[in-house]
Design a protein that fits this description.
The chain contains 1 helix and 8 strands. The protein is mainly beta. It folds into 2 domains: 50 residues, no CATH class; 86 residues, OB fold (Dihydrolipoamide Acetyltransferase, E2P). A 5-stranded mixed β-barrel has the order 4-5-6-8-7. Strands 2-1-3 form a 3-stranded antiparallel β-sheet, covered by helices on one side. The structure holds zinc ion. The site of zinc ion (ZN) has 8 residues, from loops. InterPro entries: ChsH2_C, ChsH2_Znr, NA-bd_OB-fold, Thioester_dehydratase-like. GO terms for molecular function: DNA binding.
């Protein structure tokens, strides 16, 4: 799915296998969701920068009910991840392995992934835990 809005660069980068986040060229503020104009300084100049897909879990939920996202399999774990870069902006995604324990604050890294949805390729991030096994909790 190609983006058409202010976030087009984000979706296009994901489709090509990388994560890019928006940063104001005027004042350096990071933006997500993407904006056309910076709310901090008023600049219309917004740049896109590759950011490592690493961070920590801000919150999560495990879903057992089929809402029509069979492509994800059941159950699946949705996460909101606070990025290490990009001013700590938060992105959503799914955990690669829904059976692993998950906890708020857990360190994670992601790989781009895609699935078909109503005939179109949808791009997202699949997150996996990183770091010391002893940090994991149920
Ligand atoms: Zn700005």
């Amino acid at each position: 799915m190609k983006g058409l809005g202010a976030d087009a660069e984000y979706w296009n980068a994901l489709a090509e296998g990388s994560l890019k986040m928006q940063q104001c060229s005027g004042c350096g503020a990071w933006h997500w969701p993407a904006v056309w104009r910076c709310g901090e300084c008023g600049s219309w100049e917004q740049g896109w920068h590759e950011v490592a897909p690493r961070g920590r879990i801000f919150t999560w939920t495990r879903t057992w009910h089929d809402f029509g996202w069979q492509a994800k399999g059941l159950p699946y774990v949705s996460v909101i991840v606070e990025l290490d870069g990009a001013g700590g902006k938060r992105l959503n995604g799914v955990m690669a392995d829904a059976g692993l324990p998950v906890r708020i604050g857990q360190r994670v890294t992601a790989e781009p992934w895609q699935f078909e949805w109503e005939g179109e390729a949808v791009h997202g991030l699949k997150w996996t835990p990183v770091g010391d096994e002893s940090e994991r909790e149920a």
